[in-house]
Structure formats: structure tokens, C-alpha cells
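Protocol step 4 of 6: structure prediction from sequence.
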Amino acid sequence: MTEPAPEQPQQSPLTDSTAHLLARITDQLGAQLSLVSRNGTRRPMHRTQHPDRPATDSGTPAPALVAVAHGSRDPQALRTVLALLDRVRELRPGLDVRLGHIELNAPLLPDTLDGLRGAEAVLVPLLLGRGHHVKRDLPAATAAAPGVRTRIAPPLGPHPLLVEALYGRLVEAGWDAADHGGRHAAVVLAAAGSRDPDSAQDTRRTALLLAERLGVPVVPAYASATTPTVPAALRALAARGRHRAFVASYFTAPGRFASACADAVPHRAAASLGPHPAMARLVLHRYDQARVEIAPADAVSLLASA
């Protein structure tokens, strides 16, 4: 996800004491290794409805898919999101796919919705957890656009397709499958951070899924709002003998927070998720989920962990 503007970067790299942080990460490592030993290291890729199926069965126009990005001053962010939406269109030819930003970039979401007056739309947040933007900003935007019949899909994470995208980006960054089970390997899942406990829960859930996929510990870390930071997580892992640690970018597109996280270990930092094929499939999966929901207002809480 692109950076949430209201939250400022963490000023102190170690709000927790080192001993406390080590204890927290040790607890996470133990839980993850136990999970891997019970379930194996690889989880079959999540299967969803085929993405290029007809948009409707009745011939009526399908709702527009409005992808909602946060927005960023980094020029790469908009290019990355547009590339992702191009992949979505390739998978679902004929579907009306539009983009709206919460802030910083055009088109802003209210302008996109204004162009859909009298139509139906499904808003798919290109965000990775249930934070303030999903819970507050999107419902407020739809309430301010009564001329559009809207449904709000849940955020992209957590989901196995998201884990496939994270895995692919790690491989591109040099992750070797031979590191599976290695005593020195680990991954830091670098996220923007949020004060919302549901958002933190979603990030931890994704870390557990990725740990199961990789067969090594995965520790969540954050660029703002909460701890540990990425450098603190890397130090704590090294203290436990996990010296070969990669940073997985838990961001849809580049931005200030994504760059700050990658700078902690630039030679082993994965790129943002962007237009990975699994991401395009996941956007359509969330769109299809929201279309069949009876109560759009409940979509976020009902579907976020599906």
C-alpha cells in the first residue's frame, strides 16, 4: 500500500527495549516454526474464480471496478498502479476499470465517482489492511456520491494470492529456495504501519502465511505508527543468528515509506508488489466477492480475511 499521509515516520528505531523486542520476535519465530512443522512449507496457490470469465451472466452491464490507491508524491507510484490496472484489464476484457486516489494524485476518488453518476461501481482498495482509509475514508467518499450505487470490497490483504506476489518479488530480489529451512535465513515484512489494531492483525496474518510459504521466520516491521521498525527487526533477527534476512515490501506501489524500509538492507530488499500477476488476480477476486455481497456496508468486516 502506498504511504498513509496522516501517520508520521517512527522517530526512534527502538521504542521497545532491546530485550523486549527480542522476546517478541522470539515468540513469533517459535509460533511460525511450529506452524511450518505442522503444515509443511508450501501452501497450494489459492484458487479463485477464473479472472477472464464473462463480466455478467445476464448480459447487463457489470459494475465498474474502481481501484482506490492512496496516492504518493513518488512519480513511480502512479506508473506502478497504472501498470497493475492494465494487467487487470487484460484478465477481464471489457470490464470498466477506473482509478481514484485518496489524496496526492489525480484523479481523486470523488472525481472518479462523479464520472459514474447513474451507474454502479465496486470500490477495490489497493490497500493491504483494514486501516483508517478502508474504514473511514472510503465509506465517506461513497456517502458523498449518492448518484453512484457503490459497494466497497475488502482490502487486498491478507490473502494467499498476496503471499504469492510477495514470494515472487523476493525471488526477484535474490531469495533462493535453497534458503528454505536455513538456520540463518529470515524475512522482514516491511509495512507502512497503522494505529488500527485490525490493520496490525492483517499484517501479522500475512507474515504467518508468508512464513508458511517460505519455511523460514517472517517478522512484521513498520515505517510508522508502531514498532518494531525494519532496522530494529533486522538487528533482533541477527541477534538470534538470522543474519541472512531479506526485506519483503508490503506496499502496493513505491513511495516514501517503501523506500525508507528498503534502505535498511538495499542489497536484499524486494520491490513493491505492483503489477505482479497474482496482484491482478487478487484485485478481480475482491471485485467479484463484493459483487455478490448483499450488504455492501458489511463487506470489509465480513471478507477481510477470506
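Step 5 (inspection) to follow. The beta strands are 64-69, 97-101, 120-125, 149-152, 185-191, 218-222, 244-249.
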